[in-house]
Automatic annotation (TrEMBL):
Source species of the chain: Jaapia argillacea MUCL 33604
Residue span, CHAT domain: 836-1129
Sections of the chain in a coiled coil: none
Highest taxon of source: Eukaryota
Protein's UniProt name: CHAT domain-containing protein
């Protein structure tokens, strides 16, 4: 009786079809209530259909019912009935299906019992003997995979040999025996098993020279040869044989599906050879073959395999060649596949695993290591584990990968993570201990599992600082290395891992033996040819640098610096990793006074634009710069100053600071000069820049660990990839521009020959602060040499005290204009006075004397360009204020601040004939205290500025709505905001440690915040000046002082030439006073007879603030009321 379980109707689901068959079989069964052959057969058929439904539904009730039907079918026949072997076999199949789902060992034992009994009932020569032998072999193979019991595998091999002898020409006979022999080789490493594996598959091919299934046999043999190569790390000939077989198969007459499978298998072999030989032709051909199979094959299974291998090829190209678009394409392809495919079946889990792998690769390659990719990878791996059977080898692999990902996620959060983040580490340890516990010492995968557990335990040590955790990690590393050598595999990576872990114990225990062993293992790894040369060189550099600390042997230092340099110039490695190693090189070279220090710093700074590349959104660019970049430019400048290279010091400071703004401003560069020489190129570059800037403002989705939508993640990935591709287009276009005569340095870091013109309007003083030295570099005029003033009276201790003085004296940060004070024994006034005096004596006075400046009623302009900790100090207010004989900065100069020198290389604010002034006040805001003096502030401005040029918002008849204010800004010349300000507000969509961001800063208006990014989006051409009469608008991020991440700097980027901002909270009643004096000056400075209605001269903004603050001081106001007002820009 034939068994037909298919349904031809296209209007029913698979389950509907199966249910219809079940109803029919049940009805047939009711017609035969008595025991006998017919009932036994019908029971078997019903059991088989229930197995089919279980395969679709995964409902255990279905498989339980199937097993019961098969059991009853046996009971309906006498023990010697000729149909009994067939019934026993089907009973065994059902028990095996339940084992795969439940992993109950008894089901597996019962499966084997049924197949054994079936075999015993068959007589020699029975035509079913071959099938039943294969069934018993398969059951033994299943039990071996579940338990690792070698006797089961030996018996399976013996039985498959019997089956092979019964049908020596059968492809299935060859395939089963070959597979079992290969598994036994993997378990026991007996060369004879490996040799016989190849021989069995080759015999199958030789015995069927004209068979139409020859292509399938070739595929099987090639796949076997590849597995042998990968498992044994044999020499290339075995892989070359697989490639030759597949190339020959391509010449055979092939069906499209068979051709696609050959293409995919050949691509896999070529990819593998590329990983060994790095022959670009191999990887290019492999990529082409996969793309052909992906687009031409009608088989979904072949398409999936093609996709998986294409993704792996693209990922590997990124890892070896640094081609970012390749990785992005791999991720996009995988997202598209998993979002459009039912991935809840174990056969569809490989794309999920590869996607998780790709996301982890991208996570590791980013400077900031944005956790978004890692969180998505973790969620994908959780899904994979939930789908795969408990005893599946794929599940162990996924669990190990997840354990590593969880460990990295904990590392990302820092050693003092929240309880939720610490749970990542605990889960990783538990997962990997379970994986290792399932593998005895002979298990072929124990090496990888043990090494992953070592990684996780190393991370646990980072958290616990307990030596026993580190000792366990080292013991596991040694075991993994021992297993590697027993398996005759290349030990390079494990040697590096062991050296790294021993180095960690040296840092804890300071045992020279640990350091000596680490160096020895690293040197051994260095001698091995591998893909890990970058890792080995960078680790060797660090180890030898520490060894030099002990030995003071010049050869150790020389070799360390050479190793660092070799790693940094390795272009096959990711930029983020090279940047990290360049920092280490710079640190050790600087520490030991090595001649390569300046070269190392230059290399590290040169990587910064690539880390914060324009093909990222604004938040990602800013986040990338928090990855250890702070202090880099300052330390580099200190080395250059130490070597007397002052011009180089200035170049390094300009190139390595405010990188976020420098990158962003490139998109607003004028292309007029380029258009005269290469108009098409200029148009292309301008189009790309506009699209880049527009798209970079989009938000970044937060990955929610509680719920994950693959489709939404795919959409987000598409948007991100689009932006990265635009970034690549931008870089490619820049390379073309730099080939145009006269444009070879277009948008490259400025040389000192360009930067010296910063002093065209007055002296510029760069204040450089490092842990080792403090210096001032003065550019007095474009044609003069740089004046170096060592600040020898300044020290790290002095700086700490000064910051403490200023910090203790400052009002509490309330984000508003109301003053609040910190409770201290000393009054804030006394504290501030002491701090300003120290600042004068140690920093400012030596600079004033070096410039030979004199006191003046109308002092000249001077620009301060502070770096590092100097950025948080009120240098403009330094002075001696406790006597009538005292002196201060304002006696000698009118102070302005600039975040970078490039700020002053833009055009000066023009003197305009027609202008518009926009004034926005917000006396009351929900959730904030009232600031009623803003209304008086507006009145003061109205007394100065003509009504016909004044646009006002914040009045009952004209509320300060965000949309209205934004619409007015592009046509305004001067902006004045008198409202609450939010600096570094919390962004709930990013990790806690990344939440502070000037990009989240805002001015609070009637209907909500006016975020600074909304202003940055505007195309501003007329804007000369913005007055931010709010609080803390020029307070930078202490974690990134050199990036000038505050509201005032953002306004400079947006296009304003000058900004008035505040360092801390200001008194509400001072707003009107300062505004009145400020605007009276700039509106009366055009000419003596101009009066107060004259067109303003915004170039006088700094002097206007100088005068306004002087008047506040004349009222004997507190330091804390006048010091916070500062001017930035022109």
């Amino acid at each position: 009786m034939a068994s037909t379980h298919c349904c031809h109707s296209q209007h029913h689901s698979a389950l509907d079809c199966i249910d219809a068959v079940i109803r029919k079989r049940s009805a047939d069964l009711e017609k035969h209530p008595h025991a006998g052959q017919t009932r036994a057969w019908l029971l078997k058929e019903l059991g088989s259909v229930l197995r089919d439904r279980f395969a679709e539904s995964k409902d255990l009730l279905d498989i339980d019912m199937a097993i019961e039907n098969h059991r009853q079918s046996l009971a309906a026949l006498e023990s010697n009935h000729p149909l009994r072997p067939s019934l026993l076999s089907h009973y065994g199949f059902a028990l095996r299906d339940r084992f795969v789902h439940s992993e109950n060992p008894q089901d597996l034992d019962d499966t084997l019992s049924q197949h054994r009994e079936a075999l015993e009932l068959l007589t020699a020569g029975d035509p079913d003997q071959w099938d039943v032998l294969r069934n018993v072999s398969g059951a033994l193979q299943h039990r071996f995979l579940a338990t690792g019991e070698g006797a089961d595998l030996d018996e399976a091999v013996a039985l498959s040999r019997r089956a092979f002898q019964l049908h020596p020409t059968s492809r299935d006979s060859h395939q089963l025996l070959g597979e079992l022999l290969l598994q036994r080789y993997q378990a026991s490493r007996q060369q004879r098993d490996l040799d016989e594996t190849v021989e069995v598959h080759q015999q199958c091919l030789d015995r069927r020279p004209d068979d139409r299934e020859r292509v399938s046999i070739v595929n099987t043999l090639a796949a076997t040869l590849l597995r042998i190569f990968l498992e044994t790390e044999e020499e290339l000939p075995i892989l070359e044989k697989a490639i030759l077989l597949l190339r020959h198969a391509r010449d055979l007459p092939l069906r499209p599906s068979a051709a696609s499978l050959v293409h995919v298998n050949l691509a896999v072999c070529l990819r593998t050879r590329y990983q060994r030989l790095a022959t670009c032709q191999d990887v290019e051909e492999a990529e082409m073959l996969c793309r052909e199979a992906l687009h031409q094959s009608e088989s979904s299974a072949v398409r999936q395999v093609a996709l998986e291998n294409l993704a792996l090829i693209l990922i590997y190209q990124f890892q070896t060649l640094g081609q970012s678009p390749k990785l992005d394409e791999a991720i996009s392809l995988l997202y598209a596949h998993v979002s459009s495919t039912d991935v809840d079946h174990y056969q569809h889990t490989p794309p999920l695993e590869i996607l998780a792998h790709a996301l982890q690769v991208r996570y590791s390659s980013s400077a900031k290591d944005n956790a978004r990719d890692l969180d998505e990878a973790i969620l994908l791996l959780h899904k994979v584990i939930s789908i795969l059977p408990l005893t599946s080898h794929g599940r162990y692999r996924a669990a190990s990968t997840l354990a590593l990902a969880l460990s990295k996620r904990f590392h990302h959060s820092g050693s003092k993570g929240s309880d939720r983040e610490v749970s990542f580490l605990h889960d990783a340890i538990q997962l990997q201990r379970e994986v290792v516990s399932t593998m005895d010492h002979s298990h072929p995968k124990r090496r990888e599992a043990v090494n992953v557990l070592a990684c996780v335990m190393g991370e646990k040590y980072n958290h616990s600082r307990k030596l026993e955790d580190l000792d366990e990690a080292i013991a596991l590393r040694r075991e993994a290395l021992s297993l590697t050598r027993l398996q005759h595999r290349k030990p390079t990576d494990l040697l590096n891992d062991l050296a790294h872990t021993l180095h960690k114990r040296y840092d804890h225990y300071h045992s020279p033996e640990d350091l000596k062993s680490a160096v020895s293992f690293c040197r051994e790894a260095h001698l091995e040819p591998s893909d890990s040369t970058f890792m080995t060189a960078s680790l060797l550099g660090k180890l030898l640098s520490k060894q030099y600390d002990l030995t003071r042997q010049p050869d150790d230092l020389r070799e360390a610096m050479e190793a660092f340099a070799a790693a940094v110039i390795d272009e096959s490695e990711l930029v983020a990793q090279r940047f990290f190693v360049a920092q280490q090189w710079a640190h050790w070279a600087d520490k030991h006074g090595h001649e390569s220090a300046l070269e190392a710093y230059g290399a590290a700074i040169g990587f910064l634009p690539s880390l914060a590349m324009l093909g990222q959104d604004l938040s990602s660019r800013q986040a990338a710069l928090t990855s250890g970049s702070d202090g880099l430019a300052r330390n580099a400048a200190a080395v250059a100053i130490r070597e007397g290279e002052f011009e180089r010091a200035v170049e390094l400071l300009e190139e390595g600071r405010a990188v976020f703004w420098s990158q962003a401003l490139q998109l607003r560069t004028s292309f007029d000069d380029l258009r005269l020489r290469a108009p098409e190129l200029a148009d292309q570059l301008q189009m790309i820049s506009q699209r880049l800037e527009q798209d970079s403002y989009r938000g970044v989705s937060k990955v929610m660990m509680e719920s994950y939508d693959v489709a939404l993640a795919a959409v987000s990935e598409t948007q991100s990839r689009h932006l990265r591709l635009l970034g690549d287009e931008w870089l490619a276009c820049l390379q073309k521009v730099r080939c145009v005569e006269g444009f070879d340095r277009f948008l490259l870091p400025k040389t000192y020959a360009d930067l010296r013109h910063v002093a065209a309007h007055g002296p510029v003083v760069i204040l450089n602060a490092t842990d080792s030295r403090f210096d001032a570099l003065i550019i007095k005029a474009p044609g003069t040499k740089i004046l170096h003033v060592p600040l020898t009276r300044f020290s790290a201790d002095t700086l700490a005290k000064m910051r403490a003085h200023c910090g203790d004296a400052c009002p509490r940060s309330r984000g508003d204009r109301a003053m609040g004070w910190k409770d201290k024994v000393e009054s804030p006034e006394t504290i501030m006075k002491k701090g300003l005096a120290k600042l004068w004596e140690a920093v400012v006075e030596p600079i004033i004397r070096a410039l030979d400046l004199k006191r003046s009623a109308s002092p000249p302009r001077l620009w301060w360009c502070p770096t590092g900790s100097f950025s948080s100090l009120p240098v403009h207010a330094a002075g001696i204020y406790d006597s009538t004989e005292g002196e201060s900065v304002s006696d000698y100069v009118v102070s302005s601040y600039i975040p970078t020198l490039t700020t002053l290389l833009r055009d000066a604010p023009p003197k305009v004939d027609l202008f518009k002034m926009l004034v926005v006040i917000q006396p009351k805001s929900k959730g904030y205290r009232p600031i009623p003096n803003t209304e008086i502030e507006l009145q003061k401005i109205e007394n100065i500025v003509g009504n016909h040029v004044l646009v006002r918002y914040g009045l009952p008849e004209a509320p300060a709505l965000v949309s209205n204010v934004l619409s007015e800004i592009p046509s305004a010349t001067i902006l004045h905001f008198a409202c609450h300000g939010i600096q570094d507000s919390v962004d709930p969509l990013v990790d806690e440690q990344d939440r502070r961001s000037a990009l989240n800063s805002a001015l609070i208006l009637e209907d909500g915040p006016l975020n600074v990014t909304e202003i940055m989006k505007l195309s501003l051409t007329n804007e000369s000046l913005v007055f931010l009469s709010a609080c803390q608008t020029a307070t930078g991020d202490q974690s990134l002082p050199d990036e000038s991440m505050h509201l005032a700097a953002t306004m400079l980027f947006a296009g304003f030439r000058g900004v008035v901002g505040t360092l801390w909270s200001i008194d509400d009643k001072d707003g009107p006073k300062v505004a009145d004096a400020f605007y009276r000056h700039i509106f009366s400075s055009v000419g003596e007879n101009s009066g107060l209605r004259a067109t303003p001269n915004t170039a006088e903004a700094a002097r206007a603030l100088h005068i306004a603050v002087s008047k506040l001081r004349e009222e004997r106001s507190s330091f804390l009321r006048w010091v916070p007002f500062i001017h930035l820009g022109f």
